[in-house]
Design a protein that fits this description.
This protein is α+β, with helices and mostly antiparallel strands. It has six helices and ten strands, in the order E-E-E-H-E-E-E-H-E-E-E-H-H-H-E-H. Helix 1 packs across helix 6 and helix 3 runs antiparallel to helix 4. Bound molecules: 6-(adenosine tetraphosphate-methyl)-7,8-dihydropterin and magnesium ion.
Length: 190
C-alpha cells in the first residue's frame, strides 16, 4: 500500500511503530527540533509521523550547560533498526551536532534517540533498545505520554507510575512550551 506525503510523493507504507526522543540545548533549539521533525516526515521510508508537545527542562547530568528543549515523535517505518539509527545520526550531523568525545551528556544542538522499535529488544554495539534511561527521565516520559505510548515492554508499570516515582524537584524542573513559541520558530525554519 502507498500513500502521499505533504509534497505529493508516494511513500511505501510499513508497519514497524517507532518512538524517537528529540533533545537540544545549543543554538535555536526549537528550530533544530522542528528541522529534525521535518526531515523525518520527509523521509521516503517514514510514514504516519505524530509529534508530542515540546518541553523545557534543566539538564540531567552536568549542570554547567543550558536548559534543554525536548519532544518525541512516533512513526511507522520500513527501515531496519540500524538503518534508522543511520538516518537519525545523519539528521544530527546535518544540524551541526558535534560529538565532544570525553564529555558524556554534554551540550548539543540535536540529539535523536531511538526509544522503541516495536516491541523489539536490541542489544548491539550500536544500539540499546528500548532506550535504557526512559523511566528516569521526565523529558522523555511526558512526550511519550502525549503520544499515547505504553511502557509494558519495560516491565515498570505505566508511564504514570514512572512519573509518580520521580521526585518533586524533577516535576518542578520541566515546563511545557506554548504552541505560539513553537510556531514562531517553525516559521523561521521554512
Ligand atoms: N546508541 C545506543 N543505543 C541508542 C539508541 N537507542 N538511540 C549509541 C540512539 N543511539 C543509541 O550516542 C552515543 C552512541 O549511543 C551512538 O553512537 C549510538 O550508537 P550520542 O548521541 O553520540 O551520545 P549521547 O547522546 O551523548 O549519549 P547518550 O548516553 O545517548 O546520552 P543521552 O542518554 O541521550 O543523554 N537533560 C535534559 N533535560 N534533556 C536531554 O535531552 N540529554 C542528555 C543526553 C543528558 N541530559 C539531558 C538530555
Ligand atoms: Mg544520543
Amino acid at each position: 500500500m502507498r500513500h502521499s506525503n505533504s509534497s505529493g510523493c508516494a511513500k511505501q507504507l510499513d508497519n514497524t511503530l517507532c518512538y524517537v526522543a528529540l533533545g537540544s540545548n545549543l543554538g535555536d533549539s526549537i528550530s533544530y527540533l522542528n528541522k529534525a521533525i521535518q526531515a523525518l516526515g520527509d523521509h521516503p521510508d517514514i510514514t504516519q509521523l505524530s509529534v508530542s508537545k515540546f518541553y523545557k527542562s534543566k539538564p540531567h547530568g552536568p549542570q554547567d550547560q543550558p536548559d534543554y528543549i525536548n519532544a518525541a515523535v512516533k512513526f511507522k517505518t520500513s527501515l531496519s533498526p540500524e538503518a534508522l539509527l543511520d538516518v537519525l545520526q545523519e539528521i544530527e550531523n546535518n544540524n551541526q551536532r558535534v560529538r565532544q568525545g570525553v564529555v558524556r551528556w554534554g551540550a548539543r544542538t540535536l540529539d535523536l534517540d531511538l526509544l522503541f522499535y516495536a516491541d523489539k529488544v536490541i542489544e548491539t554495539k550500536r544500539l540499546s533498545v528500548p532506550h535504557p534511561r526512559i523511566c528516569e527521565r521526565l523529558f522523555v516520559l511526558l512526550p511519550l505520554q502525549d503520544l499515547g505510548a505504553g511502557l509494558k515492554r519495560l516491565g515498570k508499570g505505566t508511564i504514570k507510575d514512572c512519573i509518580h516515582a520521580l521526585s518533586e524537584k524533577a516535576l518542578n524542573d520541566i515546563k511545557e512550551i506554548a504552541d505560539d513559541d513553537k510556531s514562531s520558530h517553525r516559521k523561521n525554519t521554512s
